[in-house]
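Hey, I'm writing a tutorial for new members on how sequence and structure tokens pair up, and I'd like a real worked example in the thread rather than a made-up one. If someone can provide the structure for the chain below, I'll link this post from the tutorial.
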Amino acid sequence: MKASTRSTTGRVEEFHRIVFEWFAKHGRDLPWRRTTDPYAIALSEIMSQQTQVDRVIPKWRAFLLAFPTWTDLADASTADVIRLWQGLGYNRRAVMLHRLAKAVIDNGGELPNDIDVMKELPGIGDYTANAIATFAFRNSNAAPVDTNISRIFRRVFPRHQSDPKSIQRLAQSIAPIDTWTWNHALMDIGALHCSSRGHVWGLCPLAPLHGSKEPKMALQPLKKPLTPFKETDRYFRGRIVDALRECPITFKKLHSRSELVNLDEVRFQTLISKLVNGGVVERRGNTVFLAGDR
């Protein structure tokens, strides 16, 4: 065996040992980790995209109460799904979740234990398909790689190519037998220690693999947004949808709301058009309402 191969093998073994030992002591007790229901797990994965876990947990429970199965979700109106989605942001995810439920029902009522087939369904990309395959089906060939997990691999294996396909291949090639625990552990370390909001190398459980013998700060300063959030299109789209959660409303009344009144007419109409194109809202004559609202 070549020295480089022995070195890589030893590094992978140490990586496994550290991650499993850390997770046994510090892993998060999240409610969707106590179920094997693919629907509940898929719901948690879609909700968790770009949303903090503490905001997801109560909404995940509320959705399971309101829509316990794929059938219940598919039978609901898009408007009702968007209403219950309030607080999670990125309302188009609610639309895609509803479309996914309809597609699942149209295709036999169950998610397939096949990553490539899942990726053909609405709202499921490469990461989500791999995550569902891992956590719902214990698929040993799955390797969910989000931004944080990618960052972990680039820090532990700095000489490895950092393009997404290369990282995906690496993740699959070094996965241990217990991929369910392994991937949950990587997610937790990524969220708690390897996030983009700064990395305290000396406190990171993977510090021995970074080659750092003493605590060392490696904080990445947050980039200040060029535009304050309350002046962004995303903020105003959220306010429009919040208003429509209450009831349909005319363009004039909607535009006159305090949080929208300072928008110029062109920008206001553009925001409405984008929401319509995204399947979040509909317009009929002079009235705007949530998609599928009756």
